[in-house]
Amino acid sequence: NALQAGEAVQKFKLEKEMELRFEVEPRQPLLLELLCGFAEVFGTELTRNKRYRFDTGAKAAVFTWHGCELQLTGRADVSYTARETPMLFYLNVHAALEQMRRTASRGDEDRGPRAMVVGPTDVGKSTLVRLLCGYAARLGRRVTLVEMDVGQGAVSPPGTLAMLSVERPADVEEGFSLQAPLVYHFGSTTPGSNIKLYNKVVSRLADVFNRRCELNRRAAVSGCIINTTGWVRGAGYHALIHAATAFEVDVIIVLDQERLFTELRRDLPHFVNIVLLPKSGGVAARSKEFRRESRDDAIRQYFYGFRGAFFPHAFDLRFTDVKIYKIGAPAIPASCLPLGMSQEENQLKVVPITPGRDLVHHVLSVSMANGPQDNVVEANVAGFVVVTAVDSDRGLLTVLSPAPRPLPQTLLLVMDIRFVDLK
Ligand code: ADP
Protein backbone atom coordinates (compact mmCIF):
# COMPACT_ATOMS: atom_id res chain seq x y z
CA ASN A 1 0.00 0.00 0.00
CA ALA A 2 2.98 2.28 0.44
CA LEU A 3 3.16 5.29 -1.80
CA GLN A 4 6.30 7.17 -2.72
CA ALA A 5 7.36 9.94 -0.36
CA GLY A 6 6.31 13.33 -1.64
CA GLU A 7 2.99 12.14 -3.08
CA ALA A 8 0.27 14.74 -3.18
CA VAL A 9 -1.98 14.80 -0.13
CA GLN A 10 -5.33 16.54 -0.34
CA LYS A 11 -7.70 17.15 2.54
CA PHE A 12 -11.43 17.71 2.17
CA LYS A 13 -13.97 18.90 4.69
CA LEU A 14 -17.50 17.81 3.80
CA GLU A 15 -20.67 19.15 5.33
CA LYS A 16 -23.67 16.92 5.77
CA GLU A 17 -25.13 15.32 2.62
CA MET A 18 -22.12 16.18 0.49
CA GLU A 19 -19.89 13.83 -1.43
CA LEU A 20 -16.34 13.71 -2.66
CA ARG A 21 -15.99 12.24 -6.16
CA PHE A 22 -12.80 11.02 -7.68
CA GLU A 23 -11.39 9.10 -10.62
CA VAL A 24 -8.11 7.26 -10.36
CA GLU A 25 -5.36 7.88 -12.91
CA PRO A 26 -3.70 5.01 -14.75
CA ARG A 27 -0.92 3.31 -12.77
CA GLN A 28 -1.38 5.63 -9.81
CA PRO A 29 -3.35 4.08 -6.98
CA LEU A 30 -5.12 6.48 -4.69
CA LEU A 31 -5.45 6.13 -0.93
CA LEU A 32 -8.55 7.35 0.85
CA GLU A 33 -8.75 7.91 4.58
CA LEU A 34 -11.59 9.07 6.81
CA LEU A 35 -10.05 11.44 9.35
CA CYS A 36 -13.14 12.26 11.36
CA GLY A 37 -16.92 12.04 11.17
CA PHE A 38 -18.85 9.37 9.28
CA ALA A 39 -18.79 8.57 5.58
CA GLU A 40 -19.69 5.76 3.22
CA VAL A 41 -18.78 4.52 -0.23
CA PHE A 42 -21.82 3.24 -2.14
CA GLY A 43 -23.57 2.07 1.02
CA THR A 44 -20.55 0.74 2.91
CA GLU A 45 -19.46 2.63 6.00
CA LEU A 46 -15.78 3.66 6.15
CA THR A 47 -13.66 2.81 9.15
CA ARG A 48 -11.86 5.83 10.59
CA ASN A 49 -8.09 6.06 10.03
CA LYS A 50 -8.02 3.12 7.72
CA ARG A 51 -6.44 3.63 4.30
CA TYR A 52 -8.52 2.36 1.41
CA ARG A 53 -6.76 1.83 -1.87
CA PHE A 54 -8.43 2.54 -5.21
CA ASP A 55 -6.76 1.22 -8.35
CA THR A 56 -6.47 2.41 -11.93
CA GLY A 57 -9.71 3.39 -13.56
CA ALA A 58 -11.77 3.38 -10.34
CA LYS A 59 -14.49 6.00 -10.17
CA ALA A 60 -16.04 6.46 -6.79
CA ALA A 61 -17.80 8.79 -4.39
CA VAL A 62 -17.57 9.16 -0.62
CA PHE A 63 -20.83 10.39 0.79
CA THR A 64 -21.53 11.71 4.28
CA TRP A 65 -24.90 12.04 5.99
CA HIS A 66 -23.48 13.97 8.93
CA GLY A 67 -20.27 15.67 7.77
CA CYS A 68 -16.67 14.40 7.77
CA GLU A 69 -13.06 15.08 6.93
CA LEU A 70 -11.29 13.02 4.29
CA GLN A 71 -7.81 12.70 2.95
CA LEU A 72 -6.70 11.55 -0.50
CA THR A 73 -3.09 10.53 -1.06
CA GLY A 74 -1.80 10.13 -4.60
CA ARG A 75 -2.70 11.90 -7.79
CA ALA A 76 -6.35 11.73 -8.79
CA ASP A 77 -7.42 12.32 -12.37
CA VAL A 78 -10.43 14.17 -11.06
CA SER A 79 -11.43 15.00 -7.50
CA TYR A 80 -14.12 17.42 -6.40
CA THR A 81 -16.84 17.78 -3.84
CA ALA A 82 -20.52 18.03 -4.71
CA ARG A 83 -23.53 19.21 -2.78
CA GLU A 84 -26.16 18.06 -5.27
CA THR A 85 -26.67 14.31 -5.03
CA PRO A 86 -29.73 12.05 -5.39
CA MET A 87 -28.84 10.26 -2.14
CA LEU A 88 -31.96 11.43 -0.29
CA PHE A 89 -34.15 9.92 -3.03
CA TYR A 90 -32.17 6.70 -2.82
CA LEU A 91 -32.47 6.61 0.96
CA ASN A 92 -36.22 7.05 0.62
CA VAL A 93 -36.37 4.06 -1.72
CA HIS A 94 -34.46 2.04 0.86
CA ALA A 95 -36.85 3.19 3.60
CA ALA A 96 -39.88 2.18 1.51
CA LEU A 97 -38.38 -1.26 0.79
CA GLU A 98 -37.54 -1.70 4.47
CA GLN A 99 -41.13 -0.82 5.38
CA MET A 100 -42.30 -3.61 3.07
CA ARG A 101 -39.84 -6.03 4.70
CA ARG A 102 -41.22 -5.11 8.10
CA THR A 103 -44.77 -5.73 6.94
CA ALA A 104 -43.67 -9.12 5.62
CA SER A 105 -41.79 -10.06 8.79
CA ARG A 106 -44.92 -9.33 10.84
CA GLY A 107 -46.69 -11.85 8.64
CA ASP A 108 -49.03 -9.27 7.06
CA GLU A 109 -47.55 -10.12 3.65
CA ASP A 110 -46.13 -13.45 2.64
CA ARG A 111 -43.03 -11.95 1.11
CA GLY A 112 -40.83 -8.88 1.10
CA PRO A 113 -40.18 -6.48 -1.77
CA ARG A 114 -38.83 -7.54 -5.13
CA ALA A 115 -37.26 -4.52 -6.75
CA MET A 116 -35.68 -4.04 -10.16
CA VAL A 117 -33.37 -1.19 -11.19
CA VAL A 118 -33.53 -0.20 -14.87
CA GLY A 119 -32.24 2.53 -17.14
CA PRO A 120 -29.85 3.14 -20.03
CA THR A 121 -26.11 2.54 -19.66
CA ASP A 122 -24.05 4.65 -17.28
CA VAL A 123 -26.77 6.02 -15.06
CA GLY A 124 -25.62 4.34 -11.86
CA LYS A 125 -27.81 1.21 -11.84
CA SER A 126 -25.15 -1.10 -10.39
CA THR A 127 -24.20 1.58 -7.88
CA LEU A 128 -27.80 1.96 -6.67
CA VAL A 129 -28.18 -1.83 -6.43
CA ARG A 130 -25.01 -2.00 -4.34
CA LEU A 131 -26.26 0.83 -2.13
CA LEU A 132 -29.68 -0.74 -1.53
CA CYS A 133 -28.16 -4.16 -0.81
CA GLY A 134 -25.63 -2.54 1.53
CA TYR A 135 -28.26 -0.61 3.49
CA ALA A 136 -30.40 -3.73 3.83
CA ALA A 137 -27.42 -5.80 5.02
CA ARG A 138 -26.57 -3.15 7.60
CA LEU A 139 -30.04 -3.74 9.06
CA GLY A 140 -29.43 -7.48 9.21
CA ARG A 141 -31.50 -8.36 6.13
CA ARG A 142 -30.49 -11.09 3.67
CA VAL A 143 -31.39 -9.55 0.35
CA THR A 144 -30.84 -11.58 -2.81
CA LEU A 145 -28.94 -9.64 -5.45
CA VAL A 146 -30.00 -10.81 -8.89
CA GLU A 147 -27.44 -9.86 -11.51
CA MET A 148 -28.84 -9.81 -15.04
CA ASP A 149 -26.17 -7.57 -16.53
CA VAL A 150 -24.23 -10.03 -18.68
CA GLY A 151 -21.74 -7.33 -19.68
CA GLN A 152 -20.66 -5.73 -16.40
CA GLY A 153 -21.96 -7.96 -13.63
CA ALA A 154 -20.86 -7.30 -10.05
CA VAL A 155 -20.86 -10.85 -8.74
CA SER A 156 -19.67 -13.14 -11.55
CA PRO A 157 -17.61 -12.97 -14.76
CA PRO A 158 -19.03 -11.47 -17.97
CA GLY A 159 -21.29 -13.75 -20.01
CA THR A 160 -23.18 -15.01 -16.97
CA LEU A 161 -26.27 -14.26 -14.90
CA ALA A 162 -26.04 -14.78 -11.17
CA MET A 163 -27.72 -14.62 -7.82
CA LEU A 164 -26.06 -13.78 -4.51
CA SER A 165 -27.41 -13.71 -1.00
CA VAL A 166 -25.94 -10.50 0.44
CA GLU A 167 -24.82 -11.02 4.02
CA ARG A 168 -22.81 -7.85 4.41
CA PRO A 169 -22.26 -4.62 2.48
CA ALA A 170 -19.82 -4.76 -0.42
CA ASP A 171 -16.15 -4.32 0.47
CA VAL A 172 -15.04 -0.73 -0.22
CA GLU A 173 -12.06 -1.88 -2.31
CA GLU A 174 -13.13 -5.26 -3.66
CA GLY A 175 -16.89 -4.97 -4.10
CA PHE A 176 -19.19 -7.88 -3.27
CA SER A 177 -17.59 -10.96 -1.87
CA LEU A 178 -17.79 -13.61 -4.52
CA GLN A 179 -18.38 -16.46 -2.12
CA ALA A 180 -20.95 -18.79 -3.50
CA PRO A 181 -23.01 -16.84 -5.99
CA LEU A 182 -25.25 -19.13 -8.00
CA VAL A 183 -24.09 -18.65 -11.59
CA TYR A 184 -25.70 -19.45 -14.95
CA HIS A 185 -24.08 -19.57 -18.37
CA PHE A 186 -25.15 -17.14 -21.05
CA GLY A 187 -22.04 -16.92 -23.17
CA SER A 188 -21.88 -13.38 -24.48
CA THR A 189 -21.83 -9.81 -23.20
CA THR A 190 -25.10 -8.67 -24.70
CA PRO A 191 -28.54 -10.24 -24.24
CA GLY A 192 -29.27 -9.55 -27.90
CA SER A 193 -26.88 -12.23 -29.09
CA ASN A 194 -29.38 -14.85 -27.95
CA ILE A 195 -32.46 -13.24 -26.44
CA LYS A 196 -34.34 -16.51 -26.22
CA LEU A 197 -31.61 -18.03 -24.07
CA TYR A 198 -31.36 -14.85 -22.00
CA ASN A 199 -35.07 -14.90 -21.17
CA LYS A 200 -34.94 -18.61 -20.45
CA VAL A 201 -32.13 -18.16 -17.93
CA VAL A 202 -33.96 -15.22 -16.32
CA SER A 203 -37.04 -17.42 -15.85
CA ARG A 204 -34.80 -20.07 -14.34
CA LEU A 205 -33.33 -17.55 -11.86
CA ALA A 206 -36.85 -16.52 -10.86
CA ASP A 207 -37.83 -20.17 -10.26
CA VAL A 208 -34.74 -20.79 -8.16
CA PHE A 209 -35.34 -17.61 -6.18
CA ASN A 210 -38.96 -18.58 -5.55
CA ARG A 211 -37.88 -21.97 -4.29
CA ARG A 212 -35.31 -20.32 -2.04
CA CYS A 213 -38.02 -18.10 -0.59
CA GLU A 214 -40.22 -21.12 0.14
CA LEU A 215 -37.42 -22.76 2.10
CA ASN A 216 -35.94 -19.70 3.76
CA ARG A 217 -38.23 -17.24 5.48
CA ARG A 218 -35.49 -14.67 5.96
CA ALA A 219 -34.73 -14.62 2.24
CA ALA A 220 -38.44 -14.31 1.45
CA VAL A 221 -38.89 -11.38 3.85
CA SER A 222 -35.73 -9.61 2.66
CA GLY A 223 -36.73 -9.86 -1.01
CA CYS A 224 -34.49 -9.22 -3.97
CA ILE A 225 -32.86 -6.40 -5.88
CA ILE A 226 -32.38 -6.99 -9.56
CA ASN A 227 -29.72 -5.29 -11.66
CA THR A 228 -30.32 -5.10 -15.41
CA THR A 229 -28.45 -4.21 -18.59
CA GLY A 230 -28.60 -0.79 -20.20
CA TRP A 231 -30.36 -2.17 -23.27
CA VAL A 232 -33.84 -0.69 -22.91
CA ARG A 233 -35.19 -0.65 -26.46
CA GLY A 234 -36.83 -3.24 -28.67
CA ALA A 235 -36.08 -6.77 -27.55
CA GLY A 236 -34.10 -5.31 -24.62
CA TYR A 237 -37.27 -3.61 -23.38
CA HIS A 238 -39.23 -6.84 -23.78
CA ALA A 239 -36.56 -8.65 -21.79
CA LEU A 240 -37.17 -6.16 -18.95
CA ILE A 241 -40.92 -6.82 -19.08
CA HIS A 242 -40.20 -10.53 -19.12
CA ALA A 243 -37.94 -10.26 -16.05
CA ALA A 244 -40.45 -8.09 -14.17
CA THR A 245 -43.14 -10.69 -14.86
CA ALA A 246 -40.98 -13.73 -14.07
CA PHE A 247 -39.88 -12.27 -10.72
CA GLU A 248 -43.30 -10.71 -10.03
CA VAL A 249 -41.56 -7.50 -9.06
CA ASP A 250 -43.34 -5.01 -6.84
CA VAL A 251 -41.07 -2.05 -7.41
CA ILE A 252 -39.18 -0.76 -10.43
CA ILE A 253 -36.74 2.08 -10.12
CA VAL A 254 -36.14 3.80 -13.44
CA LEU A 255 -33.01 5.90 -13.49
CA ASP A 256 -32.87 8.94 -15.68
CA GLN A 257 -35.18 8.02 -18.54
CA GLU A 258 -38.70 9.33 -18.64
CA ARG A 259 -39.60 7.50 -21.83
CA LEU A 260 -38.76 4.15 -20.28
CA PHE A 261 -40.73 5.11 -17.18
CA THR A 262 -43.80 5.94 -19.27
CA GLU A 263 -43.55 2.75 -21.30
CA LEU A 264 -43.26 0.55 -18.22
CA ARG A 265 -46.25 2.27 -16.64
CA ARG A 266 -48.22 1.61 -19.78
CA ASP A 267 -47.22 -2.05 -20.11
CA LEU A 268 -47.10 -3.37 -16.55
CA PRO A 269 -50.02 -3.98 -14.20
CA HIS A 270 -50.92 -1.03 -11.95
CA PHE A 271 -49.89 -2.78 -8.72
CA VAL A 272 -46.27 -2.57 -9.82
CA ASN A 273 -44.87 0.53 -8.20
CA ILE A 274 -42.73 2.35 -10.76
CA VAL A 275 -40.63 5.33 -9.75
CA LEU A 276 -38.49 7.62 -11.84
CA LEU A 277 -35.35 8.91 -10.13
CA PRO A 278 -32.51 11.13 -11.32
CA LYS A 279 -29.06 9.80 -11.91
CA SER A 280 -26.18 11.15 -9.92
CA GLY A 281 -24.12 13.90 -11.55
CA GLY A 282 -21.09 11.90 -10.49
CA VAL A 283 -21.78 8.85 -12.63
CA ALA A 284 -19.12 8.76 -15.24
CA ALA A 285 -19.81 7.72 -18.81
CA ARG A 286 -17.55 4.83 -19.76
CA SER A 287 -16.17 4.30 -23.22
CA LYS A 288 -16.50 1.03 -25.14
CA GLU A 289 -12.79 0.58 -24.59
CA PHE A 290 -13.11 1.08 -20.85
CA ARG A 291 -15.95 -1.45 -20.69
CA ARG A 292 -13.86 -3.97 -22.57
CA GLU A 293 -11.00 -3.45 -20.17
CA SER A 294 -13.21 -3.84 -17.12
CA ARG A 295 -14.60 -7.08 -18.56
CA ASP A 296 -11.05 -8.30 -19.04
CA ASP A 297 -10.22 -7.29 -15.48
CA ALA A 298 -13.25 -9.18 -14.19
CA ILE A 299 -12.11 -12.37 -15.96
CA ARG A 300 -8.50 -11.90 -14.82
CA GLN A 301 -9.78 -11.45 -11.28
CA TYR A 302 -11.75 -14.68 -11.55
CA PHE A 303 -8.55 -16.61 -12.29
CA TYR A 304 -5.95 -14.59 -10.39
CA GLY A 305 -8.06 -13.32 -7.50
CA PHE A 306 -8.47 -9.76 -6.31
CA ARG A 307 -5.09 -8.01 -6.77
CA GLY A 308 -3.55 -11.30 -7.84
CA ALA A 309 -4.12 -13.17 -4.59
CA PHE A 310 -4.66 -16.59 -6.28
CA PHE A 311 -2.47 -18.77 -8.45
CA PRO A 312 -4.41 -20.44 -11.23
CA HIS A 313 -3.45 -23.85 -12.64
CA ALA A 314 -2.66 -24.80 -16.21
CA PHE A 315 -3.22 -28.36 -17.40
CA ASP A 316 -4.08 -30.48 -20.42
CA LEU A 317 -7.39 -32.16 -21.08
CA ARG A 318 -7.86 -34.93 -23.61
CA PHE A 319 -10.59 -34.22 -26.15
CA THR A 320 -12.11 -37.52 -25.06
CA ASP A 321 -12.22 -36.45 -21.38
CA VAL A 322 -14.60 -33.57 -21.96
CA LYS A 323 -17.71 -32.78 -23.94
CA ILE A 324 -17.83 -29.31 -25.39
CA TYR A 325 -21.06 -27.64 -26.49
CA LYS A 326 -22.36 -24.31 -27.61
CA ILE A 327 -25.88 -23.17 -26.87
CA GLY A 328 -27.71 -21.95 -29.96
CA ALA A 329 -27.19 -23.13 -33.51
CA PRO A 330 -26.39 -20.47 -36.09
CA ALA A 331 -29.54 -19.02 -37.63
CA ILE A 332 -30.50 -20.84 -40.82
CA PRO A 333 -32.97 -19.77 -43.48
CA ALA A 334 -36.53 -20.57 -42.40
CA SER A 335 -36.98 -22.75 -45.47
CA CYS A 336 -34.15 -25.02 -44.28
CA LEU A 337 -35.48 -25.57 -40.76
CA PRO A 338 -36.74 -29.08 -40.06
CA LEU A 339 -40.51 -29.32 -40.29
CA GLY A 340 -42.20 -27.98 -37.16
CA MET A 341 -39.09 -26.35 -35.74
CA SER A 342 -38.89 -22.61 -35.18
CA GLN A 343 -35.86 -20.34 -35.36
CA GLU A 344 -36.34 -19.76 -31.64
CA GLU A 345 -35.94 -23.41 -30.75
CA ASN A 346 -32.74 -23.21 -32.69
CA GLN A 347 -31.46 -20.64 -30.18
CA LEU A 348 -31.75 -23.12 -27.32
CA LYS A 349 -30.18 -26.02 -29.14
CA VAL A 350 -27.19 -27.62 -27.43
CA VAL A 351 -24.71 -28.11 -30.24
CA PRO A 352 -21.58 -30.29 -29.88
CA ILE A 353 -18.29 -28.59 -30.79
CA THR A 354 -15.14 -30.25 -32.07
CA PRO A 355 -12.16 -28.52 -30.46
CA GLY A 356 -9.91 -26.71 -32.93
CA ARG A 357 -7.55 -23.75 -33.12
CA ASP A 358 -10.47 -21.32 -33.10
CA LEU A 359 -11.26 -22.36 -29.53
CA VAL A 360 -8.05 -20.78 -28.23
CA HIS A 361 -8.64 -17.90 -25.74
CA HIS A 362 -12.33 -18.72 -25.39
CA VAL A 363 -13.81 -18.85 -21.92
CA LEU A 364 -15.70 -22.09 -21.19
CA SER A 365 -18.25 -22.59 -18.44
CA VAL A 366 -17.99 -25.84 -16.52
CA SER A 367 -21.62 -26.90 -16.42
CA MET A 368 -23.18 -28.79 -13.54
CA ALA A 369 -25.17 -30.79 -16.09
CA ASN A 370 -24.01 -34.41 -16.29
CA GLY A 371 -24.63 -34.82 -19.99
CA PRO A 372 -26.51 -33.43 -22.96
CA GLN A 373 -29.53 -35.46 -21.86
CA ASP A 374 -29.75 -33.14 -18.79
CA ASN A 375 -31.31 -29.71 -18.99
CA VAL A 376 -28.04 -28.03 -19.98
CA VAL A 377 -29.56 -24.63 -20.73
CA GLU A 378 -30.95 -24.31 -17.20
CA ALA A 379 -28.10 -25.91 -15.27
CA ASN A 380 -25.90 -23.68 -13.13
CA VAL A 381 -22.16 -23.66 -13.54
CA ALA A 382 -19.39 -24.80 -11.22
CA GLY A 383 -16.78 -22.41 -12.61
CA PHE A 384 -14.83 -21.42 -15.70
CA VAL A 385 -11.68 -22.29 -17.60
CA VAL A 386 -10.03 -20.51 -20.49
CA VAL A 387 -8.50 -22.41 -23.39
CA THR A 388 -4.85 -21.44 -23.87
CA ALA A 389 -3.85 -23.98 -26.55
CA VAL A 390 -5.33 -26.70 -28.73
CA ASP A 391 -3.25 -29.56 -30.14
CA SER A 392 -5.49 -31.37 -32.58
CA ASP A 393 -2.82 -33.94 -33.54
CA ARG A 394 -2.46 -35.16 -29.99
CA GLY A 395 -6.10 -34.49 -29.16
CA LEU A 396 -5.25 -32.20 -26.26
CA LEU A 397 -6.43 -28.86 -25.09
CA THR A 398 -4.63 -26.77 -22.49
CA VAL A 399 -6.71 -24.75 -20.05
CA LEU A 400 -6.21 -22.20 -17.32
CA SER A 401 -8.29 -23.05 -14.29
CA PRO A 402 -8.66 -21.56 -10.80
CA ALA A 403 -8.52 -25.05 -9.28
CA PRO A 404 -6.17 -27.96 -9.98
CA ARG A 405 -7.10 -30.93 -12.12
CA PRO A 406 -9.53 -32.69 -12.35
CA LEU A 407 -12.42 -30.48 -13.39
CA PRO A 408 -15.48 -30.93 -11.15
CA GLN A 409 -17.57 -31.75 -14.23
CA THR A 410 -16.78 -32.56 -17.83
CA LEU A 411 -19.50 -30.79 -19.77
CA LEU A 412 -18.14 -27.46 -21.01
CA LEU A 413 -20.05 -24.62 -22.66
CA VAL A 414 -18.28 -22.26 -25.04
CA MET A 415 -18.61 -18.52 -24.59
CA ASP A 416 -18.21 -15.96 -27.36
CA ILE A 417 -16.03 -14.15 -24.83
CA ARG A 418 -12.27 -14.43 -25.16
CA PHE A 419 -9.55 -13.80 -22.64
CA VAL A 420 -5.89 -13.48 -23.50
CA ASP A 421 -3.83 -14.50 -20.51
CA LEU A 422 -0.89 -12.08 -20.49
CA LYS A 423 -0.12 -12.73 -16.82
P1 ADP B 1 -24.65 1.48 -14.78
O1 ADP B 1 -24.82 0.24 -13.94
O2 ADP B 1 -25.92 2.24 -14.94
O3 ADP B 1 -23.97 1.24 -16.09
P2 ADP B 1 -22.71 2.16 -12.73
O4 ADP B 1 -23.49 2.07 -11.46
O5 ADP B 1 -21.84 1.01 -13.05
O6 ADP B 1 -23.68 2.48 -13.95
O7 ADP B 1 -21.86 3.52 -12.66
C1 ADP B 1 -20.95 3.91 -13.66
C2 ADP B 1 -19.64 4.39 -13.03
O8 ADP B 1 -19.85 5.59 -12.29
C3 ADP B 1 -19.03 3.40 -12.06
O9 ADP B 1 -17.64 3.35 -12.27
C4 ADP B 1 -19.34 3.98 -10.68
O10 ADP B 1 -18.36 3.62 -9.72
C5 ADP B 1 -19.33 5.47 -10.97
N1 ADP B 1 -20.19 6.24 -10.06
C6 ADP B 1 -21.45 5.96 -9.68
N2 ADP B 1 -21.94 6.93 -8.87
C7 ADP B 1 -20.95 7.84 -8.72
C8 ADP B 1 -20.82 9.08 -8.00
N3 ADP B 1 -21.83 9.58 -7.28
N4 ADP B 1 -19.64 9.74 -8.10
C9 ADP B 1 -18.63 9.25 -8.84
N5 ADP B 1 -18.68 8.12 -9.53
C10 ADP B 1 -19.82 7.41 -9.48
Q: Any idea what the shape is?
A: globular
Strand content: 25-35%
Q: Give the overall average pLDDT.
A: 93
Low-pLDDT regions: none
Distance between the termini: 21 Å
How many beta-strand elements? 23
> How many separate helices?
8
What does it look like?
The chain is of the alpha+beta class. Helices cover 25% and strands 30% of the residues. The protein has eight helices and 23 strands. The strands form five sheets. It has a seven-stranded mixed β-sheet, sandwiched between helices. Strands 17-22-21-20-23-18-19 form a seven-stranded mixed β-sheet, with no helix packed on it. Helix 1 crosses helix 2 (125-138) and helix 3 packs parallel to helix 5. The site of adenosine-5'-diphosphate has 16 residues, from strand 7 and helix 2. Residues 13-104 form the Clp1 N-terminal domain. Belongs to the Clp1 family. Clp1 subfamily. Component of the tRNA splicing endonuclease complex. Component of pre-mRNA cleavage complex II (CF-II).
What is the structure about, briefly put?
The protein has eight helices and 23 strands. It has 423 residues and is an alpha+beta fold.
Helices and strands in order, then pairings?
Layout: E1 9-14, E2 18-24, E3 30-37, E4 40-41, E5 44-45, E6 51-54, E7 59-64, E8 68-73, E9 76-82, H1 87-105, E10 114-118, H2 125-138, E11 144-147, E12 160-165, E13 182-185, H3 195-215, H4 217-222, E14 224-227, H5 235-247, E15 251-255, H6 258-267, E16 273-277, H7 288-304, E17 313-318, E18 323-327, H8 343-347, E19 350-352, E20 362-367, E21 381-391, E22 396-401, E23 411-418
